[in-house]
Description:
By secondary structure, the chain is of the alpha/beta class. Helices cover about 35% and strands about 20% of the residues. It has a domain at about 305-405: 3-Layer(aba) Sandwich (Rossmann fold). The protein is built from 13 helices and 17 strands. Helix 4 packs parallel to helix 5 (about 175-185).
Amino acid sequence: MKRLQHCRTCLAPMPFLFLPMGQHPPANMFVRPEEYDEDQPTFSLNTEVCLNCGLIEIADQIPADFFRHYLYVPSGATTMHRHFGVLADVLGEAAEDGLIVDIGCNDGLLLAACNARGQRTLGIDPAANLAKTAAERGVDVHVAYFDPNTADEVRNAHGRAKVIVTTNTFNHIGDLHSFMEGVIRLLAEDGVFVVEVPWAKELLERNEFDTVYQEHVSEFSLLSMVKLGEFFDLDVTDVHRLPIHGGSMRVFFRKKGSVEPTPEVQAMLDEELAAGMLEPETYERFAERVETVRVRLLAILDDLKAQGKKIAGYGAPAKGNTLLNYFEIGPDRLDFLVDRNPLKHGLYSPGMKISVKSVDAIADEKPDVLMVLAWNFFDEIREQQSDFVARGGRFLVPLPEPVLVS
C-alpha cells in the first residue's frame, strides 16, 4: 500500500489516511480496441490528508513521461471558453505589457484568449500532441515538463515573466517544492504567480471524492497554499472563489511584503478552520458519506436495469473513471459512454473498459438515462441535450448525492 511519508506542501510527517480506494489504472489511460484483452498497470489510490495544513493528497506513482501524449482538452466545454475569457482579462491587467507564461497550457485555449487581447505569451507543456493544437491557435509552446532547468531555459530565451499562471495543473505536480523553485527563477521581482485549482473545502462539502486520481495528486486548502508560499518568500495576497469544476479557487502569490493581502484571504482561511479541515473526524465522516453514495447509486442503477432501461454515461472524464472503478460500475450497468472529445472516441474507459462514443450516439442509440460523470458541466450538458429531455430522457447525477433528474 503506497503511502506518503510527509505532506508535499508543508512537509509535516505522516498524513492521515481516510479513504483507501484500492488499485486503479491511470484515469486518462484509455484502452485501444487492440489492447482490450491486456491487463492495465494499476496503482493504489490511498486518499490522505495533512492535518497540519489541510492538503488532501495521494502518493505520486505515475511514471515519468506519462504526459507526453495527453487526452484531456479544456476546449471541449463551452464553459471553459467563457471561464478563460474572464481569466485572460485578469491576467492582462496584472501583466500590463509584460510576458504571461502558462504552465500546463494544454491546447492553448487560455493563451489564445490572452493573445486576442494583445498580450505577450508563452506556454509550457510536456504534451507534444497538444502543443500542435495550441500552435494552430497561434500559441507558442515550449514543450517540456516544468522544473528549475526549464525555468532557466525559458528565462534565458524570453526574459522573466510578469505573470506565471497555472490552471488545474498544480494538482498534478508530485514535487511542488521543485516546481516552486522554477517559478521563483522565472518570475519577475514585481511579478504575480496565479494558481487555479479545485478548493478542498468544496470537495469535502460536496462529496467530490472522484476528483482524486493518480494524476490529481493534491487537492488544495488555501492554508496549504499559504504554507507552501512561505518556503519561497511568497505571500498569498488575494484569492477568488470560482464555481468551475465543482468549486475552485484562484490564488495570487507575490513577493513577501510587497502587497497587503485582501480580507478575502483571511476570510477563507477562517472558513477552512471552521469546517474542521484540520480535524480527523471531518475526513472520517466524509468517507462514510462516500460509502452511502456508493450504496445508493448502485441501487438506482440496478433498479433501472431491472426495468430494462438503457443507461449511458455522459462524459468520460478522469474523475468519472475514479468513480466507475471505485464503485465497480462496468458495461453490465452502463451500456456505453459518450464524450465530446474526439481523442477518446472508439476507445474504452480505463479499468472498467466501457466503450466511449461520440455524443451523436445519444440520438442513434436512444438511451433512457444518462449518468452524468462530467457532473461539473451538468448545466451545460442539460442545455445541449434538449432533444434527449424532450423524448423523456432522464439524467442520473451521482454527486453530491445520487439523484434522477427528469
